[in-house]
Design brief:
This protein is of the alpha/beta class. The chain has one domain (10-196): Alpha-Beta Complex (Maf protein). Helices cover 36% and strands 25% of the residues. The chain has seven helices and seven strands. Strands 1, 2, 3, 4, 5, 6 and 7 form a seven-stranded mixed beta sheet that branches. A hairpin with a 2-residue loop joins β3 and β4. It is globular and about 55 Å long. The chain starts with 9 loop residues before the first strand and ends in a 6-residue tail after the last helix.
Length: 202
Amino acid sequence: MTLWIAAEPLILASQSKSRQALLQAAGIVYEAIPADIDERDIQARSELSDPSAIAALLARSKAAHVAAQRPGRYVLGADQTLSLRGRLFSKPKGRAQAADQLRELAGGTHELYSALAVAKDGEILFEDVSVARMTMRPLSSESIRTYLDAAGDAVTTSVGAYQLEGLGSHLFERIEGDHFTILGLPLLPLLAFLRHARLVVE
């Protein structure tokens, strides 16, 4: 069942499986074309330090990059940043770095910022940033090791080394925020824009 009524699918400038699953579940017809950009270089050159602003910049950059290659198409870019007491986290590069991140996040509350931007023909038509506050339970070295063994390589695909829709749910004791935001795509603001743009059924 789809509610998408536009002539062509929405383009998702991401290879994120969770974002693709959210769009599919919402009846949005899409095709995934990941944005080939250097996120860390864009972030460094921007000299931004606010995690919300960084997420918004990267979402815009992804959407604009793919939109430039697909004239006339609506392109959705998204990005997520994680901040703990002012320190920004990136996706871990391996198991050891994932363990380090979990040790730092354990027992504390961090902020997860999810941004989206919709571009078409060189113009950003819509953007939004949402935040969730995530309180991770205290974790022993053994608990971290057990989690990493069970989760496998998936821990390197998400900032913070967890995916809440999977085994990462075992790491938390409290969450404040929108479920879609946590999964990396503020879906409700996006759907409101798509209705306004008459790309989905009212």
